Amino acid sequence: MLELSAVVSVLGVLAAIAVPALLRHIRRSRAAEAAEMLDQMYRGSAAYVVQQTEGSGTVAVSFPASEGPTPAEACCHHDDGHCHPDEATWASPTWAALGFAPVTPHRYQFSYLSAEQGTAAHFTARVTGDLDCDNQRSVFERTGTLDQELNLQPGRGIFSHSPLE
Protein backbone atom coordinates (compact mmCIF):
# COMPACT_ATOMS: atom_id res chain seq x y z
CA MET A 1 0.00 0.00 0.00
CA LEU A 2 2.89 2.33 0.77
CA GLU A 3 4.39 1.69 -2.67
CA LEU A 4 1.11 2.56 -4.36
CA SER A 5 0.83 5.87 -2.53
CA ALA A 6 4.45 6.69 -3.46
CA VAL A 7 3.71 5.96 -7.13
CA VAL A 8 0.56 8.09 -7.03
CA SER A 9 2.50 10.94 -5.39
CA VAL A 10 5.23 10.81 -8.04
CA LEU A 11 2.63 10.77 -10.82
CA GLY A 12 0.89 13.75 -9.22
CA VAL A 13 4.14 15.74 -9.11
CA LEU A 14 4.92 14.86 -12.74
CA ALA A 15 1.43 15.90 -13.83
CA ALA A 16 1.74 19.18 -11.90
CA ILE A 17 4.90 19.94 -13.85
CA ALA A 18 3.88 18.58 -17.26
CA VAL A 19 0.38 20.01 -17.66
CA PRO A 20 1.32 23.73 -17.31
CA ALA A 21 4.30 23.20 -19.62
CA LEU A 22 2.03 21.55 -22.20
CA LEU A 23 -0.47 24.41 -21.99
CA ARG A 24 2.31 26.99 -22.50
CA HIS A 25 3.53 25.02 -25.53
CA ILE A 26 0.03 24.94 -27.03
CA ARG A 27 -0.37 28.70 -26.54
CA ARG A 28 3.00 29.39 -28.15
CA SER A 29 2.07 27.29 -31.17
CA ARG A 30 -1.09 29.39 -31.54
CA ALA A 31 1.02 32.57 -31.45
CA ALA A 32 3.25 31.07 -34.16
CA GLU A 33 0.13 30.62 -36.33
CA ALA A 34 -0.63 34.33 -35.95
CA ALA A 35 2.94 35.33 -36.85
CA GLU A 36 2.83 33.17 -40.00
CA MET A 37 -0.43 34.79 -41.12
CA LEU A 38 1.02 38.28 -40.53
CA ASP A 39 4.00 37.32 -42.64
CA GLN A 40 1.68 36.22 -45.46
CA MET A 41 -0.16 39.56 -45.34
CA TYR A 42 3.15 41.46 -45.33
CA ARG A 43 4.41 39.53 -48.36
CA GLY A 44 1.06 40.17 -50.06
CA SER A 45 1.50 43.91 -49.45
CA ALA A 46 4.97 43.84 -51.00
CA ALA A 47 3.70 41.84 -53.99
CA TYR A 48 0.84 44.34 -54.42
CA VAL A 49 3.35 47.21 -54.70
CA VAL A 50 5.38 45.30 -57.30
CA GLN A 51 2.25 44.49 -59.33
CA GLN A 52 1.20 48.15 -59.31
CA THR A 53 4.57 49.26 -60.69
CA GLU A 54 4.87 46.72 -63.51
CA GLY A 55 3.94 48.03 -66.96
CA SER A 56 2.62 51.33 -65.67
CA GLY A 57 3.92 54.83 -66.20
CA THR A 58 2.48 56.43 -63.08
CA VAL A 59 1.73 54.66 -59.87
CA ALA A 60 -0.08 55.87 -56.78
CA VAL A 61 1.71 55.34 -53.51
CA SER A 62 -0.86 53.10 -51.84
CA PHE A 63 -1.81 49.75 -50.44
CA PRO A 64 -5.11 47.91 -50.87
CA ALA A 65 -8.13 49.43 -49.09
CA SER A 66 -8.76 48.71 -45.43
CA GLU A 67 -10.72 45.55 -44.62
CA GLY A 68 -12.43 44.86 -41.30
CA PRO A 69 -12.23 41.70 -39.25
CA THR A 70 -12.56 38.64 -41.43
CA PRO A 71 -14.29 36.35 -40.69
CA ALA A 72 -16.86 38.57 -38.98
CA GLU A 73 -17.43 36.23 -36.03
CA ALA A 74 -14.71 35.04 -33.62
CA CYS A 75 -13.56 31.51 -34.37
CA CYS A 76 -14.05 30.33 -30.79
CA HIS A 77 -17.81 30.35 -31.40
CA HIS A 78 -17.49 27.44 -33.84
CA ASP A 79 -17.88 23.90 -32.54
CA ASP A 80 -14.18 23.03 -32.70
CA GLY A 81 -12.81 26.51 -31.94
CA HIS A 82 -11.58 26.98 -35.52
CA CYS A 83 -12.78 28.96 -38.50
CA HIS A 84 -12.77 26.83 -41.62
CA PRO A 85 -11.68 28.02 -45.06
CA ASP A 86 -14.48 29.42 -47.17
CA GLU A 87 -13.80 31.16 -50.50
CA ALA A 88 -16.77 33.51 -50.12
CA THR A 89 -15.36 34.89 -46.87
CA TRP A 90 -12.16 36.00 -48.62
CA ALA A 91 -13.71 37.32 -51.85
CA SER A 92 -13.23 41.03 -51.05
CA PRO A 93 -10.98 43.11 -53.34
CA THR A 94 -8.52 43.70 -50.48
CA TRP A 95 -7.92 40.04 -49.67
CA ALA A 96 -7.73 39.26 -53.40
CA ALA A 97 -5.17 42.06 -53.94
CA LEU A 98 -3.05 40.66 -51.09
CA GLY A 99 -3.49 37.09 -52.28
CA PHE A 100 -4.50 36.25 -48.73
CA ALA A 101 -6.96 33.57 -47.78
CA PRO A 102 -6.25 30.94 -45.13
CA VAL A 103 -6.44 27.46 -46.61
CA THR A 104 -6.43 25.52 -43.35
CA PRO A 105 -8.60 25.85 -40.23
CA HIS A 106 -7.45 28.77 -38.09
CA ARG A 107 -8.25 30.47 -34.77
CA TYR A 108 -8.04 34.14 -35.72
CA GLN A 109 -9.79 37.07 -37.35
CA PHE A 110 -7.77 39.18 -39.79
CA SER A 111 -7.86 42.92 -40.50
CA TYR A 112 -5.92 45.10 -42.91
CA LEU A 113 -5.75 48.84 -42.28
CA SER A 114 -4.24 51.18 -44.84
CA ALA A 115 -3.90 54.95 -45.01
CA GLU A 116 -2.14 57.55 -47.10
CA GLN A 117 -0.36 60.41 -45.42
CA GLY A 118 1.34 63.02 -47.56
CA THR A 119 3.68 61.22 -49.95
CA ALA A 120 3.68 57.96 -48.00
CA ALA A 121 1.28 55.11 -47.44
CA HIS A 122 1.05 52.92 -44.35
CA PHE A 123 -0.53 49.59 -43.57
CA THR A 124 -1.19 47.58 -40.45
CA ALA A 125 -1.89 43.87 -40.75
CA ARG A 126 -3.73 42.69 -37.63
CA VAL A 127 -4.54 39.22 -36.33
CA THR A 128 -6.95 38.95 -33.39
CA GLY A 129 -8.17 35.90 -31.55
CA ASP A 130 -10.21 34.98 -28.49
CA LEU A 131 -8.61 31.58 -28.21
CA ASP A 132 -10.57 30.29 -25.23
CA CYS A 133 -13.78 32.37 -25.56
CA ASP A 134 -13.15 34.33 -22.35
CA ASN A 135 -13.51 37.75 -24.07
CA GLN A 136 -9.78 38.38 -23.69
CA ARG A 137 -8.17 38.81 -27.08
CA SER A 138 -4.70 38.13 -28.33
CA VAL A 139 -3.66 40.82 -30.80
CA PHE A 140 -0.72 40.68 -33.21
CA GLU A 141 0.23 43.45 -35.66
CA ARG A 142 2.81 44.07 -38.34
CA THR A 143 3.23 47.40 -40.13
CA GLY A 144 4.85 48.78 -43.23
CA THR A 145 5.36 52.14 -44.93
CA LEU A 146 5.68 52.89 -48.63
CA ASP A 147 7.53 56.08 -49.59
CA GLN A 148 7.15 58.09 -52.80
CA GLU A 149 10.02 56.15 -54.42
CA LEU A 150 7.98 52.97 -53.76
CA ASN A 151 10.39 51.62 -51.15
CA LEU A 152 8.61 49.39 -48.67
CA GLN A 153 9.95 49.90 -45.16
CA PRO A 154 8.92 47.27 -42.61
CA GLY A 155 7.88 48.25 -39.11
CA ARG A 156 9.86 47.14 -36.08
CA GLY A 157 8.70 43.52 -36.20
CA ILE A 158 5.56 42.03 -34.73
CA PHE A 159 3.70 43.85 -31.98
CA SER A 160 1.68 41.62 -29.70
CA HIS A 161 -0.73 42.18 -26.85
CA SER A 162 -1.72 39.22 -24.64
CA PRO A 163 -0.21 36.71 -27.09
CA LEU A 164 -0.77 33.77 -24.75
CA GLU A 165 -4.13 34.91 -23.38
Could you walk me through the main structural features you see in this protein, from its secondary elements to its overall organization?
The longest helix is centred in the first third of the chain and has 52 residues, at about 1-55. The protein is elongated and about 80 Å long. The chain has a five-stranded antiparallel sheet with strand order 1-2-3-4-5, with helices on one face. It has about 160 residues and is α+β, with helices and mostly antiparallel strands. The protein has two helices and five strands.
Uncertain regions spanning at least 5 consecutive residues: none
Approximately how much helix is present in the residues? Answer: 25-40%
Strand content: 25-35%
**H-E string:** HEHEEEE
Number of strands: 5
Report the mean per-residue pLDDT as an integer.
Answer: 83
Biggest sheet architecture: 5 strands, antiparallel
Radius of gyration using CA atoms only:
21 Å
**Spatial strand sequence of the major β-sheet:** 1-2-3-4-5
| Beginning-to-end CA distance, first to last residue | 42 Å
How many structural domains? 1
Query: Which structural class fits the helix and strand makeup?
Result: alpha+beta
Report the total helices.
2
What would you call the shape?
elongated
